[in-house]
Amino acid sequence: MSDINKLRDRIDKITFDILKLLKERNDTAKEIGNLKNNLGIGITNEERENQLRVNVLTLCKEIRLDEKTAMTMLNFLLNESVKIQSESKQTHLSVFLKAKKLEKEGKKIIHMEVGEPDFLPPKIVSSALSEVYDKGYTKYGDSKGMPDFREALAKYVTEKFGVETLDQNILVSPGARFSVFLAISSLLSPGNEIIVIEPAWPAYRDNALNSGIKVRTIHTTLENKWEPRIEDIKNVINENTRMIVLNYPNNPTGKILPENLQDQIMEVAMKNDLYVLSDEIYSAYANKPWKSILTYRYNKSVITQSFSKSHAMTGFRIGYAVSSPEIIEKMSKLQALALTNVSEPIQYVAMKALKADTTDNTKTIRNRLETILKKAKTMQLDFVEPDGAMYLFAKIRQDNFDSVDFTNKLLDTGVAIAPGEGFGNYQGFVRISACQPEDTLNQGMQIIEDRLKSK
Ligand SMILES: O=C(O)C(=O)C[C@]1(C(=O)O)C=C[C@@H](O)C=C1
């Protein structure tokens, strides 16, 4: 056999051995995942991952392997494990889907699991819907959004947030969720790292996992008022770090960061040339002074916004991103690839909805949040009062409380709430949404209390 053929045999064997080992590693991760599930332990274990990183770097020195290659490979392996271990994870969405199924079977459910306001979109939406046909909003369009709508949004953003914004800074997307997907998938590459401050809406992590991007989790605690430590953020940054996600007012905690802490985080992000993805869809529900990331005028920031919460237009699937023209260009290329353009009739309707006064929505949600807070104070719950958004994220004062088990049993008694584990390592927590009329919320809270007492 010639030398090249011998070497080719060898390289094939090495490839097969690596794949066999990968299978064995993934199977082991699955077993660990099952145990974690039984023990009520969270999926990602940053300490274990850090220890592994240190050991891998030592090995790199010993065997003289390039450290960057090794770290990219390690991130890939860790992502595989996290994906495998997340397969059966329960989130607010899985509870919502189960609740919908029960409703179809004729059961009555109080929805306190999703952030879906029960009130109607602004009245103007109804007339706008009836106009689209005659006005001819029936064709393909620009993947960045309709020119008129982008202009209207630029004006709206300029007025609302006090930061001059042009149409070239706007990308219209089907919901803020799609803008989050576009930002993560078009700006980052496999092997890059993204910082997510938990508890967090699961989509940031899941989008990163889907694109082969490693999530570095900053765990925050109730005891520390859900404030990330700046040192923790600095410590996870390395040459692979590309983006940090911010979401204030926060889902699920309702937290708004103190201004100086937000300033410090932005300073670290800018110094390290990171993209800042700031999901600001709860800005209409800020009950304390709040500062948009737009005000930093940082050209690597992407702000996502939506009509779902502010205008009660969840089912319309319409939102937008605000960023530099270069980033908008990149995101729109992926959007064009995925869906050509956002439905023009819906864009037209949302453009009209921009004129509506939504202050009543803000007041309604604030009152509802207060209703559940009032009741929560009399129950076995620990929490920091939310500064905004539409949720209460509370710890149940019971040893070894399993939020998944509890939320499943609660659903059987007709109340849907979200388990804490959907938002990170928060098995002892639940998220209760304040989107129903006050009577319904009180009824739901009473059932939760009864259920907790009967445990
Ligand atoms: O040690 C664990 O808890 C594992 O699940 C294994 C593993 C890994 O793949 O090495 C997976 C995910 C954790 O974040 C840390 C490590």
From TrEMBL:
GO terms of molecular function: chorismate mutase activity; pyridoxal phosphate binding; transaminase activity
Enzyme class: transferase
Keywords: Aminotransferase, Pyridoxal phosphate, Transferase
Enzyme Commission code(s) on record: 2.6.1.-
Residue ranges of every copy of the Chorismate mutase domain listed in the record: 1-89
GO terms under biological process: amino acid metabolic process; chorismate metabolic process
Keyword presence, Transferase: yes
InterPro entries: Aminotransferase_I/II_large, AspAT/PAT-like, Chorismate_II_sf, CM_dom_sf, CM_II_prokaryot, NHTrfase_class1_PyrdxlP-BS, PyrdxlP-dep_Trfase, PyrdxlP-dep_Trfase_major
Pfam families assigned to the protein according to its UniProt record, in alphabetical order: Aminotran_1_2 (PF00155), CM_2 (PF01817)
The family this protein is said to belong to: Belongs to the class-I pyridoxal-phosphate-dependent aminotransferase family.
Binding partners and assembly: Homodimer.
Protein's recorded name: Aminotransferase
Organism whose genome encodes this protein: Nitrosotalea devaniterrae
